[in-house]
Amino acid sequence: IIWVGTGDRQLADANLHSDFELHPVEIPRKINEKYYGGFCNDTIWPLFHYFPFRTVYDESYFDAFVAANNLFFEKVKNLLRPGDFIWIHDYQLLLLPEIVRNNFPEADIGFFLHIPFPSFELFRLLPRTWRELILKGMAGADVVGFHTNDYTQHFLKSVKRTLGYRIERNFILVGDRLCKADAFPIGIDFDKFHNACFSQNAITHKNKLRTYLLGNKLIFSVDR
Which residue among 4, 26, 73, 204 is least enclosed by CB atoms within 10 Å? Predict the structure, then answer.
């Protein structure tokens, strides 16, 4: 398993697991500020989460987004071997599937979006050029995955309305090939966490806390 992600050269020397190879992509600071801090987190994140009033439209942000996706490809292209499966993740790399496809037409590519895909009414607030490149980028994959069927249908509608591609059920005809969009829900192991609170170990710790915090108010918070 080869993992390609942002990082510095030292990451390549990290021996984290014998089954993994780490290949960092070094993105110049000036590009990264407008790519990750800019387009990813000030444009895509708020718009895709239905906060259009917080969305920033800056051409230089999108230029940096394009540049960063190409930097990822420059790393990936030197690692690809025949028969490899390429799994691309999330909104930071929306353009990468098509970039890989254009250079490796026979590649097996999957893409998964870990955030919502908004309704077309929200998505079309992006400039048309950006919308087209994002949708073509995602449709460069063989399979595009989302958390819910609603997100899948929003994506398909945006493809049809923006690019005019033919769509049959969840399949998009892209030139002479098919791209499938579908929902692949993921979540926690519910039984594991539900039953853990009834384990003897958890009960012992809970009783210790009750004794130690007697007479005090306890506020317990868990984030991601």
Answer: 204
